[in-house]
Design a protein that fits this description.
- Helix 3 runs antiparallel to helix 6.
- The protein is globular and about 55 Å long.
- It has one domain: Transferase(Phosphotransferase), domain 1, CATH 1.10.510.
- It contains 6 helices and 8 strands, in the order E-H-E-E-E-H-H-E-E-H-H-H-E-E.
Length: 241
Amino acid sequence: MKHFSYLSEDIYTYENLVELKRILEFDGFGVSKIIEEDQCIQYSINREKCIRLSDLVYFISFKLVRIHLGQLLVLLKSLAEKVKQLQQANIEHHYLDCNRIWLKFNDQEQVFKIYYETQNYTIHFTGYQCPNYEDFDEQNLSMKSSQKILIIIKYIIDNYFDKVILQENKNVVKKNIIDQLYYGIHNKDLDKLINEIDKIYQRIINLIKIDKSYLLMNMLNLQNTKDMKGKYTMRMTQKKL
């Protein structure tokens, strides 16, 4: 992200070199270097262009980054779609977690702002064949990415929904939108989840359009007035908000 002008390096072990090379062709990220004698892969990552998902949710939790509901939904959908892409390519990630998920911005000047703005980024995974040595509880835990991504999405909703910027009442949004996604999420098919997010997102876009139209009508007070020649003209006066 903007002002994060440094490189970071992540190193992961691997099990199958042939499969790893196939994964890199599909999901190449940063500058990667395979060190065969140590059976590991090293990623050099430009932090001006990328942000780790765990860092993003940390920034959100301490209100260092502000995120809107629409942006949150797009993020959740992007995560689910990434795993779907892996499935279609017959690639599995058994050790997925928030530290191994990255957002790569198409424009490194982009930042999350107070006002709503579409963020253009792609999702990338690292550490495909490497057990989670950072977390003792998950060190030997192998789980399909289609299951783990649902746990990650649930974790994001559980911990960061209260930090999302909303114009509507939070309880109303939670009941009408978030609970719909949340209910039975552990057993949801990814296609169903993506479809639900699409429908909810479209509802939000439609509401935004309605709000803009309502705002415009309140800003422009149309009045019929009579000019000096006795003709009626339309006058627009701008109201202060």
